Amino acid sequence: MGLLPIHHKLPQWLKSCVVACALSGSPLIVSAADEIAFIIDTSGSMVQNDPKNLRKPALKLATQMLPSGSKAGVWLFDTNTQRIVSFEEVNEDWKNRATRATSKVNSRGQFTNIEKALESGSAVFSPDADSKTIILLTDGQVDVSKDTQQSTASRNTILNTLLPSLAEQNIHIHTIALSDNTDKDLLQRLSVGSNGMYSLARSADDLMSIFLQVFDQSIESDQVPLEDNKFTVDPSISEFTVLVFRKPGSTPSILKSPSGQEFTKSNPGAAQWFSDELYDLVTISTPEAGQWSLDADIDPENRVTIVSDLELNLEGLPNNIIQGQQVTLEFFLSDDDGTISAPTLLSLLDIDFEQSILTDPPKVLRAKVTSHTQGVVRTPSNGIFSAKLSKTLINGEHQFSVYVDGKTFKRTQTKRARVLSQVMEHTIIQGNGDEYQINLVPINGLTQADSLDITASIKKPDGQIQPTPIEKTKFGSWVINVPPDNGKELYKGFITIKGKTLDGDDFEVTQGPINVDYTKTLAAIQSEPAADLFDTLDQGNDEKEIQEVEQALAPPEPEPAPEETLVDEPLAEETPEEPAEEEVYEEESAFEENEYEDEYADDTGLLDEQEEMPEENTEDTAIEETEEESGSNAILYGVIGFVNLLLIGAGAFFGRRWFKRKKEEAEAEDQALLDAVNEAKTKATEKLQKKPEAPVEEPEPEEEDDELTKEANKISEMLDSIDDQDETA
Length: 729
Prior knowledge:
Among the domains are: 34-218, 3-Layer(aba) Sandwich (Rossmann fold); 230-308, Immunoglobulin-like; 424-540, Immunoglobulin-like; 619-728, no CATH class. Helices cover 30% and strands 28% of the residues. The protein has 19 helices and 34 strands. A 6-stranded mixed sheet has the order 3-2-1-4-5-6, sandwiched between helices. Strands 15, 17, 18, 23 and 34 form a 5-stranded mixed sheet that branches. 36% of the residues are buried.
């Protein structure tokens, strides 16, 4: 039989799958340009809001998890600012000093001088740093003196002078509010205005989780999935760090290697074991490859971060997104030579994407990103996978996760973002005579003010809706006159804003209603307590009323053209479209495994325009499964199954060679071999799709069958030749 020699080679190929991830190269160290300043409040109010001083273990954890090569420093502030850990490159000595310095965290200060703290923490950053981040934790308000006017002036300086300067320097401010009494509006404006992240800790117990979220936003760190307290270490990983949270009274954690060796706090062996009353942080260099396990409490915050020369990158996701903005999320693998684009390696990947809208309970969208067409994996030519997001970006907090399974290695990355449904703030002011006006100001940090195109409309008390002029002032605001021509009652304003984000992305969003209530005096309206920025934004918009306004202002539909007499003519033969060279995954087509709750789908309409995905395995469904045909096609099914297995084995074979040899030397022959495999598979598939005119009990081998055998033998010889060249080299 012509297939026997090839079948005999399969075990050797399968063995190569085991070593496909024996990747070479030096360990990947995070860019030295990543710089972080921790600024921690030590004012006296912390006695009530953080009675257990949980700032200490949270700060210890954050500093211990910083990767070597980054730069960081720690400041405490109240009336004055004190640097307790110098701003230097992070190494073991720096981490030890940071751990000792956390003992200085107290709650004895009198005032809360946030302005001075921000000035001190931001002054140390390098001008050419790749990323500059401030993590600000406070439980209070700007309080610099017993004179409230001085405190008000300091707050205004922070927002109007200091924040624009920090944003211009590309310094991101992640703010953490540790109390409902905190000036949340200030912290929210600091984060939005600098493209940072805002978090509210309802209690000090939330600090640990929030510090981890902020850490993920600040530092790119690869992780491997931790499932049922088990994780896989591949040979490319030069170091891993396990974070294990412990419950009060729980037994000591045990880390087990693939060979059965146990690591504990009392017997750490070669591990670096950092322990606190709330968690264990264990680092192992040059770890044994295989499956590791934890004998410890299962906690959703447990994680395994790694140092590897095979890295998963997640890009294109800002911390703050405008509803109606299209975001292109990109993810790709890279090594020391840059983005990995070899189709022979990318064809092995299974990539899953998950988007969670962090409501209670969360709403989750899952999708398989890797695309398969008739069993052949299509990969982007530049190695960068893309997901275009728009409809799923609704008001609120979102979490995005990417999981990569490369058969012999796994990687995962998670990021968060906040979607804002409003980009303009409004106040009601006095107009001409007894008229009220709507005054609109762009929220700092979201849009390019000079790109904004704004239209407005008013819904009157009688229900009439009409467009209304809007005027831009010399102060950078927009004004809408709302005359009470329908009586002194409630009028509602709506605005549609088109423009560009600070990153240059287009967006369009409609805000409203904005209530103009003539039943109240202007003094009464203006004396109403102002809501925090996010409280205002989280109120969202009344989509039902917005839809009503859009329908009322929509131009009338043109009358249908008169029907034409149809003449039967032969249809032109359609030319099938060629698949795009680069794969871009959009919501309507890429999310082929959506898992929405029915209620969520109905509420958001996210599934309204989902395209129907083509059924897989079209080769099989095109064939009538009769007993007569099964006999005639048996050998062809065998060839197809074999070629599929051949493709998988060859892909793993390529993975090994990709990291052993220079890409430019291997790429041409790899692609030639891949083309040969796909050609053989195509011929086999075409043969199966040819329906025989009459059943034949015992078909004789045809010439096409012999040709398939020749193709398979040709592939085997190519693999043997390449393997011999590798061994000789």
